[in-house]
Design brief:
The complex is a heterodimer. By secondary structure, chain A is mostly helical. Chain A has 13 helices and two strands. In chain A, helix 1 crosses helix 13 and helix 12 packs antiparallel against helix 13. Classes of the chains: A mainly alpha, B mainly alpha.
């Protein structure tokens, strides 16, 4: 079927996508690399020149950087832990023959469609606000002091908000995978006297491995870049308590207008993403081959 | 006895499932309820559920602001524009990869996927400078281009998995029956490809509408969509809770409705066909 002419036509059809993505990757990335070795501040544009690894050294010497690195990994790890664990439990629950199941699914999936600034703003103002939030009202109802969520526990709060946004995604994918599990297998196991836990451990969980892998891989890609939620709520504060790597780079570029340093941060972010991807593929890649 | 046991179990799981679902949905519900309250009622302590003063005024006030309809319209143009442009580029590519696969097709698809691994902050600086240089900062066309490129790998992948399912024999059968290339495209291929294209379009409009990095970095006022507007909206001392809620509700409702219709496709699209 694939004659030479049709193969040529096929190449022509694929070319625009490939060229566009190449431009999108190569040009900006090489510019970032170039700037990362330059002195370039928008506020004093006349002073330029090569500075070697100074921009990188600035990052490695900034205490804020190590905190941002830790916060970034804590955010990814925390949200993954919450969404995968709760996602499995909720998927198992919704998979039961329950009245109004399709409506239930609609309710559960809703947070995923809420844009990050709105999600962050709902939690910040309507729930976590120390004067007017629902949580403050609850605390007072029990005669306690309202908790200052975003001031005292900024990272925990942001992990909570982001987990709420991504829980539906994990649940939906795990539920889809659960529904392809044959009930005969489970019934056979039950007849053979396998208890609920044994069925979960030896039949359901192995069946879900692939879906869990996919959830972890895809969420990690998105979670490494979380930005809107932090911009809307804490702006990286108090101090730098909730600054992540993307947010730190954003501050260097937009607030400090130091292009060289921000570019070095961008390259560090690429290296971090590659390290994470490498370990993920090594640890999880074999689950995907099947 | 066994029956009574299973009925009781069913009741318990039903209650538990509904409890969990309502808890997850509650923040959205609470925001929608707040959007219909007066400002005083919205911040009343203890919180008011049924005793609140209900009003539609917040929606009218927000919509009558000089800028809100513009933010809304910017969101529509950017989400729909970037999606249509992306489809125009991706449909031929996905089509060719699905029907005339070469030795490198698989590698090419994996490479496209890997571009999604690149953190946005890594290309933010050059893009910002290029936009500054070419006057694209705070323009809708600039954002359309960026969001199109950002989502292009997802569009290609999703279309590819749909096109892959169209059996090649059908084409051969049509050809045997003497169908011309034109008839083949119009009467055989298009109807079979349309559902896949429609789902891809829906998912990408949702992703583009909710995007909240580039929209914040690359816009200030003129081209800012709803995501940038809400992100910079601050409510000092809770003075604008009800209006903020109304603005938020209007920002998410179109997408919430579209999303509910595209649940199934969502799984497939976001997992690049790995889970169906």
């Amino acid at each position: 079927m694939s004659t030479r002419s049709s193969r040529l036509a096929a190449r022509g059809m694929v070319a625009p996508s490939v060229v566009l993505l190449l431009i999108w990757m190569v040009i900006p990335l090489s510019m970032t690399l170039y700037y990362s070795f330059r002195l370039y501040r928008l506020l004093s544009p006349d002073r330029t020149g090569w500075v070697g690894f100074n921009n990188y050294l600035w990052f490695f010497n900034a205490p804020e950087f190590w905190q941002a690195l830790f916060n970034t990994l804590a955010l990814v790890g925390g949200v993954l832990l919450v969404t995968v664990t709760l996602g499995v439990l909720i998927a198992l629950l919704i998979d039961q023959p329950v009245k109004g199941q399709s409506f239930l699914r609609i309710l559960v999936i809703a947070p995923f469609f809420v844009m990050p600034p709105v999600a962050a703003s709902i939690w910040e103002n309507l729930f976590m606000h120390p004067q007017n939030g629902l949580f403050a009202a609850l605390a007072r109802g029990f005669g306690m002091q309202p908790i200052l969520f975003l001031e005292q526990y900024p990272m925990w709060s942001i992990i909570g908000i982001v987990s709420w946004e991504w829980l539906p995604f994990a649940t939906l994918i795990l539920l889809t995978a659960l529904q392809s599990l044959s009930s005969e297998q489970l019934e056979a196991a039950e007849m053979d006297g396998a208890g609920a836990f044994a069925r979960f451990r030896y039949i359901i969980l192995p069946h879900l491995t692939r879906a869990i892998t996919v959830v972890i891989l895809i969420q990690t890609i998105f979670l490494l870049g979380i930005f809107g939620e932090i911009f809307t709520t804490t702006q990286g504060g108090p101090g730098s308590a909730s600054t992540t790597l993307p947010y730190m780079i954003f501050k260097q570029a937009i607030a400090a207008k130091d292009i060289g340093r921000a570019a070095a941060g961008g390259i560090i972010a690429v290296i971090l993403a590659n390290i994470v991807a490498y370990f993920l593929m090594r640890g999880l890649g074999r689950n995907l081959d099947a | 006895m066994a029956r009574a046991h299973s009925t009781r179990r069913k009741v318990v799981t039903t209650i538990a499932a509904w409890g969990v679902a309502l808890t997850i949905f509650f923040p959205v519900l609470w925001m929608i309820l707040t959007s219909f309250k007066t400002e005083a009622s919205a911040v009343a302590m203890p919180p008011q559920f049924l005793s609140a003063d209900w009003t539609l005024e917040n929606y009218a006030t927000v919509w009558a602001r000089s800028d809100y309809p513009r933010f809304f319209w910017n969101s529509v143009v950017i989400a729909v524009g970037s999606t249509l442009l992306g489809l125009a580029v991706a449909i031929p590519a996905a089509w060719a990869m699905a029907f005339v696969p070469g030795r490198r097709t698989r590698d090419l698809l994996m490479w496209m996927l890997s571009t999604k691994m690149m953190p946005a902050v890594a290309v933010m600086i050059p893009l910002y400078l290029l936009f500054l240089r070419f006057g694209l900062l705070d323009t809708r066309i600039g954002l359309v281009l960026v969001l199109m490129l950002m989502n292009l790998p997802i569009i290609v992948w999703m279309l590819y998995t749909y096109f892959k399912e169209i059996p090649g024999e059908i084409l051969e059968a049509a050809r045997m029956d003497g169908a011309s290339l034109w008839n083949e495209i119009v009467y055989v291929l298009t109807p079979m490809a349309l559902p896949g294209i429609a789902s891809t379009m829906l998912l990408n409009i949702i992703l583009a509408w909710n995007e909240a990095f580039w929209t914040i970095v690359l816009t200030t006022t003129k081209a800012a969509p709803l995501s940038a507007f809400i992100a910079s909206f601050s409510a000092p001392q809770g003075l604008f809770y009800a209006k903020l809620s109304a603005a938020s509700a209007m920002a998410i409702l179109p997408i919430l409705i579209m999303g509910w219709f595209s649940q199934k496709q969502l799984v497939r699209g976001l997992t690049f066909g790995a889970v169906k």
